[in-house]
Specification:
There is one protein chain. This protein is α/β, with parallel strands linked by helices. It has two domains: 157 residues, Rossmann fold; 167 residues, Glycogen Phosphorylase B (Rossmann fold), CATH 3.40.50. The chain has 13 helices and twelve strands. It has a six-stranded parallel β-sheet with strand order 2-1-3-4-5-6, sandwiched between helices. Strands 9-8-7-10-11-12 form a six-stranded parallel β-sheet, sandwiched between helices. Strand 11, helix 10 and strand 12 form a beta-alpha-beta unit. Helix 1 crosses helix 13.
């Protein structure tokens, strides 16, 4: 079988889509599938100028397009013919809400028209494609839980909140920094890279926050150590460009109580983990949730134990092998009917 993956990102770039593409490509190749990957080679801030999508690709049994990304996934869908599988990763917000609304409507129509199967990561997102063949495939987590889970030992340490992700506008990092300005007795660790990182450093300096630190060049081993130091993993994203939140599962598997914005897809993930949600952009509501967990150590300990258990059940069930196998089944199903 010959498969073409068209995506915005792929390893070694770090990000949610990149990680999923990496897991899938590696797994398919281990199963004897020939896989080619086409991604933009240049990145200018939030934009990825490329001619990748302008070509019609032939000679593949399956073309797997990841989106939505204006205009990469749109043009790739338009330019190519059957068989196409399309993975819809998020409902993007781009430039303005009105423009984003029109774009999302157009892109969903195009995906339903051109793709034989649409892959979604949550049942909430599946509801956006009621007239299409939709398959829900949960994204896998590659992190392993610590062997010696001792949450009671963490109660004695300074209460710590960790953020892990890209430093991009939709991530709501300013919301977390405002929360840190309220909770001076809580430690905040911000892990990740991105073009907006210098801006957020300046904001922290401007507010004279001594309780907020940035971690640079963090590998998986260091990240696991930071998870084990933290009490809460927070994803304060402000719009639907955030659609799931794999880092919430990673953190929860290490005993961090997951807290995130009440967003479609993200909240479904949190229900699976037994985590907590707050209204998008409300740093005061977020501060109240964190303060309550800090003050009530018994509640934190109970939630930490519960979310650790549920996260590890998720990791065991929705592992990389599951993710690859489900895609193999879909690829084979559409090639057999050609």
């Amino acid at each position: 079988m010959r498969v073409l993956e068209i995506a915005t990102d792929a390893p070694p770039y770090k990000g949610g889509i990149s990680r999923l593409v990496g897991v899938l490509v590696e797994g398919l190749r281990k199963n004897g599938v020939h896989v080619d990957v086409k991604v933009p080679k240049r990145r200018i801030g939030e934009f990825k100028p490329t001619v990748t999508a302008l070509k019609k690709y032939e000679g593949y049994d399956v073309i797997h397009i990841h989106g939505p990304t204006p205009f990469l996934s749109d043009v790739a869908l338009l330019m190519n013919d059957n068989p196409i599988i399309y993975t819809h990763h998020a409902e993007v917000n781009w430039l303005s809400e009105n423009l984003s609304y029109l774009y999302r409507r157009f892109h969903r129509f195009l995906a339903c028209k051109k793709a034989q199967i649409i892959v979604i990561h949550s049942h909430e997102y599946a509801g956006l494609f009621k007239r299409a063949h939709v398959e829900v495939i949960r994204p896998p987590v590659t992190f392993q839980s610590p062997k010696n889970f001792q949450p009671h030992m963490r109660v004695k340490r300074p209460f710590t909140v960790i953020y892990v992700g890209q430093f991009r506008a939709f991530k709501g990092i300013d919301v977390l920094i405002k929360t840190a300005s309220i909770l001076k007795d809580v430690q905040f660790i911000l892990v990740g890279e991105g073009s907006l990182k210098p801006k957020f450093r300046r904001l922290v300096n401007h507010l004279h926050l001594k309780n907020t630190v940035f971690e640079d060049s963090v590998d998986d081993r260091k990240l696991q150590a930071l998870y084990e130091l933290s009490h809460v993993i927070c994803l304060p994203s402000i719009n639907t460009t955030e659609a799931y939140g794999l880092v919430l599962i990673e953190g929860a598997s290490h005993g961090c109580v997951p807290i995130a914005s009440n967003l479609i897809g993200v909240r479904e993930n949190l229900r699976l983990l037994g985590g907590l949600t707050f209204s998008c952009g409300s740093h005061k509501e977020l501060a109240n949730l964190i303060r309550e967990l800090k003050v009530d150590s018994e509640k934190w300990l109970r939630l930490s134990t519960q979310t650790h258990k549920l996260a590890n059940e998720y990791i065991e069930k929705y592992n990389p092998e599951y993710y690859v196998q489900r895609h193999m089944e879909l690829f084979q199903s559409i090639t057999q009917h050609r």
